[in-house]
Design goal:
CATH superfamily: Vaccinia Virus protein VP39
Strand content: 15-25%
CATH class: Alpha Beta
Shape: globular
Distance between the termini: 39 Å
Number of helices: 7
Strand order of the largest sheet: 3-2-1-4-5-7-6
Structural class: alpha/beta
Order of helices and strands: HHEHEHEEHEHHEE
Length: 209
C-alpha cells in the first residue's frame, strides 16, 4: 500500500475534478459551520485537499490556514485561490498535527479526514493544542463502521492493490467518544448525508484547559 502522501499526490488531479456526491448535505454542513464563524476569527483546516471548502468559508473569517499531506493537493488549492482572487487563505503542505506559527486558532476544522488518520486518539489530543481555550473543533467524518459488510470487506482488497488509502472503519459512537476523550466538549452533532452515515460534530475546547 502506498504512503498517504504518495497516494494522494497520485490522485490529486482526479480528486480535484470529482463532484460532491451529496450537494444538499454539503450545503447544510457549510451552513452549520458558518453559523459558528465570525470575521475576527482565525481558522485551521487540516486535510484541506484541493481547498474548495476553505475557499468557500474564507469570507466568514479573518484568515484560514489550509494544510494537507499532499503537495499536489496544496498546489491545486493555491491555484484555485489565485484564480478566485482570495488572499486570506494560505495553503501549505503539512501533517494534521504540524505546528503552525499562526496558531493556536479560534476554529480547527477537518472534513472527511478523521477516518484516514492512523493513531487517531493521539492525533486528536495534539489537535486540541491547535485550538485556543474556548475555541472550536469542527469535523465531518464518514462512518464506515456503520456501512454494510460488503463495503468493509472490499476496502482491504482495494488497499492491497493500491487504489484505496488507509481507512479506519469508525462508528458514530467511535467518533464522538474519540473527540470527547481528547478533552473536547461536544456542543452539536448532526447527520445530513443520505446513504453512508457521516457524523458532523462541533466541539469546544474548555476555556480552562
Amino acid at each position: 500500500m502506498p504512503t498517504p502522501q504518495r497516494f494522494w499526490d497520485r490522485n490529486a488531479a482526479k480528486y480535484a475534478k470529482s463532484k460532491i456526491g451529496d450537494m444538499p448535505a454539503y450545503e447544510i454542513t457549510l451552513e452549520r459551520i458558518r453559523s459558528y464563524l465570525s470575521p475576527e476569527q482565525s481558522m485551521l483546516e487540516f486535510g484541506c485537499g484541493t481547498g474548495s471548502t476553505a475557499l468557500l468559508l474564507a469570507s466568514q473569517v479573518r484568515e484560514i490556514i489550509g494544510t494537507d499531506i499532499s503537495g499536489e493537493m496544496v498546489r491545486i488549492a493555491m491555484e484555485k485561490a489565485t484564480a478566485q482572487g482570495i488572499s486570506n487563505v494560505t495553503f501549505r503542505q503539512a501533517t494534521a498535527t504540524a505546528t503552525q506559527p499562526e496558531g493556536p486558532f479560534d476554529v480547527v476544522f477537518g472534513s472527511s479526514i478523521l477516518h484516514l488518520i492512523e493513531g487517531l486518539p493521539e492525533t486528536l489530543i495534539q489537535l486540541k493544542d491547535h485550538v485556543k481555550p474556548g475555541g472550536l473543533f469542527i469535523t465531518k467524518t464518514p462512518c464506515l463502521g456503520e456501512a454494510g459488510v460488503f463495503i468493509r470487506m472490499v476496502i482491504p482488497v482495494m488497499q492491497c492493490v493500491g487504489i484505496a488509502p488507509y481507512v479506519n472503519s469508525l462508528s458514530i459512537l467511535d467518533v464522538d467518544a474519540a473527540i470527547e476523550k481528547a478533552g473536547f466538549e461536544i456542543v452539536e452533532t448532526g447527520q445530513f448525508q443520505k446513504g453512508m452515515p457521516s457524523r458532523f460534530v462541533v466541539a469546544r475546547r474548555p476555556a480552562d484547559s
